Amino acid sequence: MTASFDTLAAVDLGSNSFRLQIVRVMDGMLYPLDSLKDTVRLGGALLPSGELDQDIADRALACLARFGERLRGFHPDRVRVVGTNTLRVARDAALFIARAERLLGFPIEIIAGREEARLIYLGAAHSLPASQEKRLVVDIGGGSTEFIVGQGMRSLKTESLNLGCVSYSLRFFPDGRLTRHNFKDAVVAARDQIQRIAAEFGPDQWQLAIGTSGTARSLRDILEQSDFSSEGITLDGMEKLRAELIRAGSLKAAHLNGLRGDRAPVLPGGLSIMLAVFEELGIQRMDVTLGALRDGVLYDLLGRQDERDPRADSVAQMMRRYHVDTVQATRVARVAHHVLAGLSAGQEAAPDWKRELGWAAALHEIGLDISHTGYHKHSAYIVENADMPGFSRQEQKVLATLILAHRGSLGKLLSQVTDDSLWPVIVSLRLAALFSRSRRDLTLPENLHFSTVAPRQFRVVLDADWLDSHPMTASALREEASGWKDIGFQLTVRGQDDRKLLA
After folding, report:
1. 216 or 470, higher pLDDT
2. Which of 17, 30, 163, 407 has the fewest C-beta atoms lying within 10 Å of its C-beta?
3. What is the 3-class SS of 251-293, one letter each residue?
């Protein structure tokens, strides 16, 4: 089925924003090609009569006309358009949809809340590492909030409640005033709804909480950049944010790092709902992923059913795209893992370093497709900035750092490496590349051993006769030891008799 598709498109008609996402399909993976977004806030268009405000509806239709132009020429089987909460409840939704379909050129599906939840989980799961943990995924939209407990690629429980960042901001903060009383009313109202699903979605039902879509990403950015939370969304961080908003009294008076202008009007409602979610479901901390409804729509359209780690697939795809010498990459990975095993012996190493070291070895030469000179810089730049499904930007940055560090000057790393547990991984990749420089299967000495003597002190033990018979490697090791010394580290090369072999 994969081979029959070149390009897919999904349109998400949310209650806060309309989004168009176009992707390229390669080897079962989705790579973004183009995206359009318009914050139409259709959820704020609902009048007391239940009909849509004409001005906002017209603005939404103008947006869809632009989307329609971009989608012109797409085959109907390769586009899926979904409408969510506002179009589920608006009394004149049928009239709006008829006009919208003429402008878009494609049919619009109004999906039920639980179907929306299933697709949200599908999108989130494809953006997360493969895991057997049960995950709680929460998506606060403009007009509804979806809750999913899932495992792997499969959603186990789904629920949708009629509480959203647009509707709650309009209901509880209509004049923009941010008071203790308004926040209390909003949180209590949200908790009242969430309470009825708390037994099925409580902390005994999952091991990891994940937030997705605009509200979760906005809260994470504000909490981290305003130093209310060190990582992700936390209950303590949100309470600090609420206190700061109450102190300011209005959004205009509040100066928050990380708050985008288009998210500001719906922040109070989104924050109130997320506080209620944390309090009712016993959450202390929540991670955030980029995968959301439109991603789930695309994967559903593609019909993917496998449960592979998307990061491994991304690495394999990049190896093919940049014509990596797989024999050399495998050779470097094998030696690097041997080095890391020695350097980590008896120590509590980070559990993911072996896997990430393997990925770095797989991709360390992709820059050769651009230029041999400084290829490691090209490799690092590509990895840090490419679309790599499954990887977070932070994961890509760490991977890029490893790749940049595998050769060349070490001085550049002192300001980039903030986690000391990364240094043995860097040593492992550098030594593996050094020993594999001949690009042939080199018979390494049986007594080749690596160890960490003390923090920032590493030792290589090998046979002196072998080193004498490999002068290029001996010279490279001498330069390597000198480079580490220049930045305050120690790399020594000794024989079995503990005699220092390199001056």
Report:
1. 216
2. 407
3. CCCCCCCCCCCCCHHHHHHHHHHHHHHHHHHCCCEEEEECCCH
